[in-house]
């Protein structure tokens, strides 16, 4: 079954994509692991520089990105442009604050010294809805990438071009190849991806039914962590 952009104002199919095959998904996950091994060793300053570039792209292209949102899911253009600009603000916010959020925290101990350290965990699968096609993704991706993780996105099937545009933004911002990838897949492939040992965590924004399905799949793989809105690598904003 194809994945299509359908203009909600006219019902006209604007563009159609062939869903990823199992081999393509496997290749994407492998690329994500390779990117993680590189990205996790970068400094906060390096990540912040790239994240600010992503914010700059969002600001500079907010009108075009807003038109894309309007085309795919019908958001009024003023609100769509504002959504792109809000995503730019999130990029700058986490670029400015991630290092402080993730600094080691001392813990009082009797007879010794203790601390809590925050470390990246790997490839994070994000399952995101259509209603805020950029914001829901960036509110996960900006903190996750700043924390040293990488992301793979299963976006809603009616906004494939929004998903691909977000991948392109992070690529142009200078993040390593594979640091953020959009998977053009149907819901039938999600459980297999969650079960893959290369996926460290899954984050979901969606319906109760989707949440139950993801929680059930993750529960069969107890190493996974599940969040209703974003992986708990940095507190939500």
Q: In oligomeric terms, what are we looking at?
A: single chain
Q: Main β-sheet: number of strands, strand sense, barrel status? A: 5 strands, parallel
Question: What is the C-alpha radius of gyration, as a whole number of Å?
Answer: 18 Å
- State the shape: globular
Number of strands: 9
| Average pLDDT | 90
- Given the helix and strand composition, which structural class is it? alpha/beta
Termini Cα gap:
36 Å
What does this structure look like?
This protein has 237 residues and is of the alpha/beta class. The chain has helices spanning 22-39, 44-60, 62-73, 77-101, 135-146, 160-172, 190-195, 208-219; strands at 3-6, 13-17, 105-109, 112-116, 123-127, 150-154, 180-182, 199-204, 225-227. The strands form 3 sheets. A 5-stranded parallel sheet has the order 7-6-5-8-9, with helices on both faces. The chain has a two-stranded antiparallel ribbon with strand order 1-2. It has a two-stranded antiparallel ribbon with strand order 3-4. Helix 2 (44-60) packs antiparallel against helix 4 (77-101), helix 3 (62-73) runs antiparallel to helix 6 and helix 4 packs parallel to helix 5. The longest helix has 25 residues, at 77-101. It starts with a strand and ends in a 10-residue tail after the last strand.
């Amino acid at each position: 079954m194809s994945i299509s952009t359908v203009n909600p104002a006219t019902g006209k199919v604007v563009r159609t994509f062939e869903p990823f095959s199992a081999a393509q998904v496997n290749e994407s996950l492998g690329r994500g692991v390779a990117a993680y091994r590189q990205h996790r060793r970068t400094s906060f300053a390096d990540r912040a520089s790239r994240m600010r570039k992503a914010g700059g792209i969002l600001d500079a292209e907010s009108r075009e990105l807003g038109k894309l949102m309007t085309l795919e899911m019908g958001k009024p253009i003023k609100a769509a442009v504002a959504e792109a600009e809000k995503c730019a603000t999130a990029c700058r916010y986490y670029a400015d604050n991630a290092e402080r959020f993730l600094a080691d925290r001392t813990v009082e101990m009797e007879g010794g010294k203790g601390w809590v350290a925050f470390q990246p965990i790997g490839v994070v699968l994000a399952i995101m809805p259509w209603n805020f096609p950029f914001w829901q993704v960036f509110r996960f991706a900006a903190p996750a990438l700043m924390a040293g993780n990488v992301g793979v996105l299963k976006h809603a099937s009616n906004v494939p071009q929004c998903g691909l545009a977000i991948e392109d933004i992070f690529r142009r911002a200078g993040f390593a190849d594979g640091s953020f990838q959009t998977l053009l897949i149907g819901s039938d492939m999600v459980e297999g991806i969650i079960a893959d040992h290369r996926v460290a965590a899954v984050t979901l924004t969606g319906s109760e039914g989707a949440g139950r399905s993801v929680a059930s799949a993750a529960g069969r793989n107890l190493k996974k962590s599940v969040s209703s809105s974003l992986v708990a690598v940095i507190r939500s904003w």
